[in-house]
Amino acid sequence: MMLLASGNTSARSAQPDPTFCQQLQQTGVLHATAPVRCEQLRVVRFSYVDFNGKLRDDGEITVLAATADHVSALFSALRERGFNLAGARGMEHFRGDDAASMRANNTSAFNDRAIVSGSAPSLHAYGLAIDINPVQNPFIEVGKDGSAQISPAAGRQYLNRQTNRPGKAARKGMAEDVVELFALHGFTIWGGDWDAPIDYQHFQVSRKLAKKLVALSDAQARTAFDEHVKAYRSCRDSGKPRSACVD
Predict the structure, then answer these.
(1) What is the DSSP secondary structure assignment for residue 16, as one 8-state letter?
(2) pLDDT tens-digit series, residues 212-232
(3) Which is it for the CA torsion 108, 83, 213, 206, positive or negative?
(4) What are the CA-CA distances from residue 227 to residues 66, 191, 233 (Å)?
């Protein structure tokens, strides 16, 4: 039985104030060389159903302002669906340490860092990527010798991606259940579709769209992201598969 708390459960977003921007800088989440400015970001606060079935109201992630309305709607939809999240705190609570955030099974978004094993900015550095439940949805990198690095280590028990298996309890919070929901709200690219690495927790937009959005004014970027969402939904409504509708 799902336990629901009383009160306002609507997701909402807020513009970061100077104190918050300073905190992002001091904790290494935002650098002077970041592809976005702090004023281009928004903090989305939301309620969610945890793995004990309890409704919690302490969810928060930071995203590009252009996406805030859709991200708010996305997390409201996750809650209404009863999709379980272990927790969601801004990366400033982890001083920008992605490994620490993953070990805590933390759902997160903005973090001004490079891609894994590379120097290009991650889509997280644009506020245009969201990671959910890293333990249930681990990052898998295969070395040249064929060995696999699983991050976080606790995610090893979720390499078998079946949610329902004979004699075992159904598993919750796995990304496969919400791939289409993320896509319908603009995050059309899922790391679980990749070959190397495989990033089950990760949802993002294309790098081309990211560069376009951050170069526009907030109003223009919001309009462009709305158009991106409408284009995907129209494609799906036409009967085409998700793979044919992704940028």
Answers:
(1) P
(2) 999 999 999 999 999 999 999
(3) positive
(4) 11, 23, 10
**Cα 244 to Cα 25, 175, 209, 232, 238, distances in angstroms:** 39, 20, 17, 9, 11
With a cut of 60, say whether residue 7 has pLDDT above it: no
Q: How far is CA 33 from the centre of its chain?
A: 22
Threshold 0.90, pTM exceeds: yes
- Pick left, alpha or beta for residue 87 (phi over 0 → left; psi -120 to 50 → alpha; otherwise beta): left
Annotation: CATH topology of 12-237: Muramoyl-pentapeptide Carboxypeptidase; domain 2 (3.30.1380)
Is residue 163 within 8 A of residue 222, CB to CB? The reply is no
- Nearest-angstrom CA–CA distance, 135 and 229: 29
With contact defined as beta carbons under 8 Å apart, do 137 and 154 qualify? Answer: no
Paired residues of 181 in beta bridges? none
In the prediction, which pLDDT does 146 show? 81
Q: Which residues are 203's β-sheet partners?
A: 130, 190
pLDDT at residue 142, rounded to an integer? 86
Q: What token pair was written down for 18?
A: 């100077």
Average pLDDT, the chain: 93
Dihedrals phi, psi of 43, to nearest 5 degrees: -100, 120
First to last CA, the chain: 40
